[in-house]
Amino acid sequence: MNWDDVRIFLAVARSGQFLAAARRLGVNHATLSRRVTALEETLETKLLTRRTNGCELTPEGEIFLHAAERMESEMLAAQSNIGRIDRAVAGTVRIGAPDGFGVAFLAPRLGRLTERYPDLKIQLVPVPRAFSLSQREADIAITIERPEQGRLVSSRLTDYTLALYASRAYLEKAGTPATIEDIAGHRRIGYVEDLIFSPSLNFTGEVMRNWDAAFEISSATGQTEAVRSGAGIGILHSYIARQYPELVRVLPEIAIQRSYWTTFHESARELARVRAVVAFLQEEVAESRAIFG
Description:
two-stranded antiparallel ribbon, 11 strands, alpha/beta, D-Maltodextrin-Binding Protein, domain 2, 293 residues
């Protein structure tokens, strides 16, 4: 069995598209397709169902994917043991992050990382959803919970605080609530409940039993902008809200604590580019630790 064919299969299986995998590997689309076909012929089984909009793993493909990932881990370990592991901080690293952290904190800082490593390409994907590391939707994920399953390496990046905020203009019109009971008489902003991808994001119940938002937005940055516009009171990330002088913390005794974690697949543990990016993230957060309190 040709390891390069297995490596190409992994890229296709993780991206769900031949074209995306070809771009990521820098391989011609037709060549990539032939290599996957050659692997299927070697194994005498169909691994992928090709469709016009992508491809899907067959049941046999699902089984082989797990075996291929074990092979990948063994290959990386072998390279490390004989001193041939990738030591250059070069290539592409995709970071998946919650939109608030990705846009407000990472985006203004990652330019320094590419200045430090000119051969490194960073892809930041700040969206309000979870990322599959086993499917390689991201090389590194910033998660709001420590993953309990999968062959993943996780470390706590930082704790952070969320609190109630409103715009000065809104409070001048609607008044400032003095107690949590007063919140019921105000317009509230929250998440779209059926789009919450993690139980950790369902924090409105920690403030009041029935938040019943009149304005729901499935994005932390979107909620911040809505509160800034005077649409109502929202539960915002304090490290983001403090950037805007027009925002006022309401009922400051109320605080919600959460954590960010850096997580990557164990098969990437020895990749210099992944290690360099994780170290940079930890360095930047450590230098800015005070803003997350």
